[in-house]
Amino acid sequence: MAQAEAAEVVLRLDGITKRFGPLVANNAIGFELRKGEVIALLGENGAGKTTLMNILFGHYTADEGTVEVFGQTLPPGHPRAALAAGVGMVHQHFTLADNMTVLENILLGTRPLLSPRLDARAARVKVARLSEDFGLSVHPDARVGTLSVGERQRVEILKALYRDARILILDEPTAVLTPQESSALFGTLRKAVAQGLSVIFISHKLGEVMEISSRVLVLRHGKLVGEVATADTDRQKLAEMMVGAEIAAPRLAEREPGPPLLTLSNVDTPRRGNAPGLSAVNLTLRAGQITGLAGVSGNGQAALAALIGGLERPVQGGMELHGDVPTDWSPRAALAAGIARIPEDRHKTGTVSDFTLTENAVLESYAEAPYSRTGWMDWRAAEDFARKIIETYDVRCPGPSARIRLLSGGNMQKLILGRVLEANPKIILANQPVRGLDIGAVTFVQNRLIAARDDGAAVLLISEDLDEVMALSDVIHVIYEGHLSPAFKRGTMSPAELGQWMAGHGFGGGAHAA
Amino acid sequence: MEIFDILLTASFWAAAVRIASPLIFATLGELICERAGVLNLGIEGIMVIGAFSGWMAVYLGAPLWAGVGVAMLAGMLFGLLHATLTVPFGLSQHVVGLGVTLLASAVAYFAYRLSLPEVTSPPKIVPFQPVEIPGLSQIPLIGPAFFNQTPLTYLAFVLIAVVSIVLYRTPLGLALRAAGENPASVEAQGLSVTAIRMGAVIVGSGLMAVGGAFLTMSAFSSFFFEMVNGRGWICIALVVFGAWRPGKAALGALLFAAFDALQVRLQQTPLGALVPYQVFLMVPYILSILALVLMSRRAEVPAALMVPFNKGER
Fold this sequence. Notes:
The complex is a heterodimer of chains A (about 525) and B (about 325).
Chain A: H1 2-6, E1 9-20, E2 23-34, E3 38-43, H2 49-57, E4 64-69, E5 72-73, H3 79-84, E6 87-90, H4 102-107, H5 120-134, H6 149-162, E7 167-171, H7 179-194, E8 198-203, H8 206-212, E9 215-220, E10 223-229, H9 235-243, E11 260-268, E12 281-286, E13 289-294, H10 301-309, E14 316-321, H11 331-336, E15 339-342, H12 346-350, H13 357-361, E16 372-373, E17 376-377, H14 379-392, H15 409-421, E18 427-431, H16 439-454, E19 458-462, H17 466-472, E20 475-480, E21 483-484, E22 488-489, H18 495-502
Parallel strand pairs in A: 3-8, 3-9, 6-7, 7-8, 13-19, 13-20, 15-18, 18-19
Antiparallel strand pairs in A: 1-2, 1-4, 4-5, 9-10, 11-12, 11-14, 16-17, 20-21, 20-22
Chain B: H1 2-7, H2 10-35, H3 43-59, H4 64-86, H5 93-115, E1 131-132, H6 142-146, E2 148-149, H7 151-169, H8 171-181, H9 183-188, H10 193-219, H11 231-241, H12 246-267, H13 270-274, H14 277-295
């Protein structure tokens, strides 16, 4: 990176401070970005990364400090000025209109509003050239609503490149991508840098930061706490800088499994749209045991979660709960049977965004004492419960009466975890419990799940992260197109062997051994 | 069968086109608002104010086209009120819309009473007269139906094309549709969601008012209370019927108008002597509901319709 040192400074942030009420989201942050380099902005959820980039792009106005692009100070609060200066931003939540085509989304706002023509033809040529140059294949006439997440992200990048961005900001770009899509994205970024663009890459995934960046800036609690050349550091050091403490990996102590709490024998469930149903699934969840479910996304994990959560009934096969066959299977029956759910999508199915923390805390138990008596809500009891979760599970929030949408993903997940675990569930359905969380929150959630297992709960851990499944599970199943592999004991399979099962090897013929 | 005889008369089709014209103006106006993300329930009242103000201007001596202009301005004024309350202030679009309807109708009736206190039957103006399009008006059936209408009707049909082209072929149309689907996309491309949405509501309201003015300046020649008679609400349904597309929505307006023209004529047939006339009055509404159910099942609602946008909110 010797050349990079000498390269021209394209962006300079100086003394950026932003307060949201009493919270200081950014505290006097300053750094420089040079031509042709990738810097990673690393930090936990809520460290202030996104706020900083939103200030840079003009979505927010900083309370103090200045942004300079190519030596010119940007007027605060004007995305248009940032765009004109050559800053392109790929937001974490895509800013695309689903009802329009790729080309229309790219063209949006690129011409004066009152000009009579779109000049779609010239644009099409330019987009085709950019797609070619940067490896961003996407059909210009496809409606954005029909595109996959990876394709949408390519559209976002094309939008920035179309406007001749010289500085690309990517906010947690890999959070929603498959590993293959992520490596394609990195290919694109390398091409961009080779052509003299500069990139700011926001992430809390250390592996990616090590792979793509040349310099790392670490943010913690709104402050810039470190800046290192990527070559001079490693994952462990970065993690410690990010969290501000040493991190211990979760440990699973040996433990005799208890009696079976939930048994599925030869269960089929119907297909739902593109998602496969279960076919001939045999599964036993035992007390005091974590059962890991590995598999590539979309292979029937949703169907299994829906079945155990009470949203789906088996069309064939038997189900036993605590030794009995449940007569009426519904989400309410599942709750009553002591099945606690950590849903896959905490925004859509785990919480109600515009409800307060208190309301969300009693979402599953509001109709029971002590939260309601003789048909009346006891909000004081509910709020006490929310406070208890906030304290015990370290939920960082303004208070129990704040709307939950204001919380970061990790804190939202901690609230859900508290809601689930405080009910002392017998069976815990943990579907992607740590997806999108930062290291501190991941460790916290995982340790809590292990503690629940040690207390005798049966845990089903569904995850697309094989490392996580292998680290936390007593037994592992692989799911593939609705079929379940036999149960593999902890430590008996290598990642490569499990990877083979995940790719469908071993499921020959009427595969339902168990 | 009388019904086929009716369908083959030029006067039936001419009536259908005439009845459709005000609906087309107002439907296009509503469609523009909704495509930008704002439901404008002020439509009914804005049509009343348009009907009144255009007619009043002509009654006081203005030329007909100036009257259309006055109606449009009056509509835009109420559009500005609606837009201010719903876009930058982000108030409930339902409540504001109904409020605008009540206010605009009341203002129209009040102004009417104030300016013509002693009048029992409303005075007449000389309305727009039919203009034959040379050549085209000679085509059998279609000619008299489509090409012997008043200039305002021609304007309505031209507007269908204009609105389609603006929506789908210009930078402004892109921004408008994006504002109704995902305002963050507009913001991220450096445009102002507030300006686009307010502009859409103001222009859309102007068109609604011209639709109202059609009633007093082209269809009839004077202003009555209750003359808009729910046409605004019909237009809201037509936007849904047309799946937020100008061409389909205008087609819906024509279809509804055809049913309306048909029922009037059916009343005069032998069948009309048997069945109470109220049944015929219901026909267009019943058929519209049926068509709405059938046509709009797969319609894609603008995703951000009725969702206020606050810059910088998390």
